[in-house]
Amino acid sequence: MTTSPQGTPPGTDAPQRPAHAAPAWQRTSRTYTPTATGHRLEVRDLTRTFGDKTAVDQVSFTVEPGRMTGFIGANGAGKTTTMRMMMGVLRITAGEVLWNGEPIKDADRAAFGYMPEERGLYPKQTILDQLGYLGQLRGMNRADALAEANRLLERFALGDRTKDKLETLSLGNQQRVQIAAALLHQPNALILDEPFSGLDPVAVDSMVDLLREHMDRGVPVLFSSHQLDLVNRLCDSMVILDHGKVLAAGTADELRASRPKRHRLRCSQDVGWVRAVPGVTVEDLEGTEATLSLDDDEARQGLLQRAVDHGLLEFTDLAPTLSEIYREVTR
Amino acid sequence: MSTLSPETRQDAGDPRPGATSAPPIDRHVSHPWLIVLTREILVKVRDKAFIFSTLFTLVVIVGMVLFNAFMANRTQDFSIATDSDAGTQLVQTAGAMLSGDDEMTAEQVTRDEARQLVADEEADAAIYQEDGRWVILADSQLDGALDNTLTAAVNEYTMAANAQAAGITPEQLREGAQFEIEYLSGGNDRGFATYIMRFVFAMLFYMSAVIFGMAIANSVLEEKQNRVVEILATAIPIRQLLYGKILGNCILAFAQIALYAGAGLLTANIAGVTGEFGWALEAAGWFIVFFVFGFAAQATIWAVLGSLASRSEDLQSNTTAITMILVAGMFAGILAQGPWLAVASYVPIISSIAMPVRMLEGQAQMWEPFVALAVCLAFGWFMVRLGEKVYQRAVFQGGRSLSWRQALKLEQ
């Protein structure tokens, strides 16, 4: 398996799918562009009740082929319940999971890679042995499973520990083995519950590289996380869940576009006058600088005309960070 | 959010154009339970504690058989001092009565010399006649076999002498003086030997059921506790996991009992004592059949108990009931008599001990073991069906330990 820096191997038709092109804000930070082929995973009105309590309430979103979707929400928001329903571990009260547009079957799920919330494989079995076993259960023959396990462990710098029992490894290394277990069988989709928790930044990077290789094959990746900065950095799109409901979903740009825009104004003179401009709401004002939002284009014109008279130095859009969006929608 | 794109492939296993790696994988797993079963067995046979306990039990079994053989084959030479021809004759009669290669020799000396020989431990005993009574003189203890033989010989000898005096043959004198033994149940109680066999059956079944039962429960709990079961459940139907686990441990238990039986029989054969246990072989064969059915019938229960627990501490309390049933079965096998034993021989699980015991004692009709096996099979089938339901629900429930009822009420 090799990384394709352009991400569009011959024979694909990425230009037909502009929605998949990396948004402008991402292009500077990475070279990865998702492929256009692959599988699509979708949940529609997924609902789960436990007695009187509705843990997941009509949740709908799509994980596009070859894209990484971040699943964000506080503890108890319903992320794990949703993922478990998607994996068929938990019965669905209502709604459905679609795989390439069709209701998902167990055979489809058998080809997924899954990392459950609470970790742990067999503590008393050697790591290579148990990876071989898990590969066999996913339809690989044992020799292939062991070869692939060896390759992955080598990559995680665990090549010399393959004969060690899992429980003798550090938690970070156990986490790596867990990841290997999810990737071993060339999964068609990845559903990862908090995959990065407990990993150091270098390990996160190396794992992200590995995930990108699978995304290049068109594999959709859904991962949940509390770490908003990580989601911000890694994800093509995200789903924000709160109390079992989807509050916002889409690409980072889409989410930003849906929020009221804020701007910063800096002039050479005092900007106290902005309060008097119609259609302008001032959020913060300090001497020659102000943070404000605008009702419409008319307000923008009025503001900028007067700003020029007051020695305009800077007028910028303030893109909300993901944390800000998250706090705002979950407020 | 968006509609299905035309290039999105429908079939899961197909190679995707432009995929950067890996040929397509045939993901079909034809017998997942077989993979689970293989793992269960491989993990266990590599477990040092398991290897050690099996070897230890083997050594104990071989040792016991060898000890028995040694005791049975041991030849004894008794040397008896006496002061009369009658005494020498009596010793010869006794010598003829001895079993196997045992021998008895007489040494005719004076009474004082005879006393001295016994005192010097050169003779095992001295016999002489005093005031018309026969006396056995021993130093501090008299060998049981020697006592019995001499007593029988003196009986024989005296009776022959009395018969001669009365002018009749010893046979005429003895006529009608012996009991004919009849059994109500038509059996032949071998007493102590049967008791030992009952004990062996009961202990073997109890030990195997508890040891492998606990292994099943722990194996299920390990997967539940570490959430491996969630990964496994996405790969194969959870039922297959249960089947593989139960069958794997059944095979291990059968293999172990076959190993013990084989080692015992082989040792007995080599030591040349098989003849003495021939009468037990048929019952022992049936015991193995009942062991297989009985063990399999209760194996699911252990798997369910493992799935109901949330920590290994829970297993100690929730396995009490099944352990008590097995203990009851063990005591029924060792102690029960008559109607109690007959009833026990039809109760599933307990029948695995009680029915072979009845066969050992020759109490059971030909059709009875088959009926008991059928009852056991029906019970085992019911337990697997019920167990599946409980297991599938309970094994994903973390946090607290559950009861059967609570688990059945859970939504999956």
From TrEMBL, chain B:
Record membrane topology: Multi-pass membrane protein
Any keyword Membrane? yes
Major site of localization recorded for this protein: membrane
A GO molecular function term, named singly, is: ABC-type transporter activity
GO CC terms, sorted: plasma membrane
Q: Where are the transmembrane segments?
A: 49-70, 195-221, 242-263, 283-309, 321-346, 366-384
Task: From the Swiss-Prot or TrEMBL record, state where the protein is found.
Answer: Cell membrane
Domain of life of the source: Bacteria
Keyword line:
Cell membrane, Membrane, Transmembrane, Transmembrane helix
Residues of the region (Disordered) are 1-25
Residue intervals of the ABC-2 type transporter transmembrane domain: 48-384
- Matching InterPro entries, A to Z? ABC-2_transporter_component, ABC2_TM
Which PANTHER family would you find in this protein's record? MEMBRANE COMPONENT OF ABC TRANSPORTER YHHJ-RELATED, MULTIDRUG ABC TRANSPORTER PERMEASE YBHS-RELATED
Q: What is this protein called?
A: ABC transporter permease
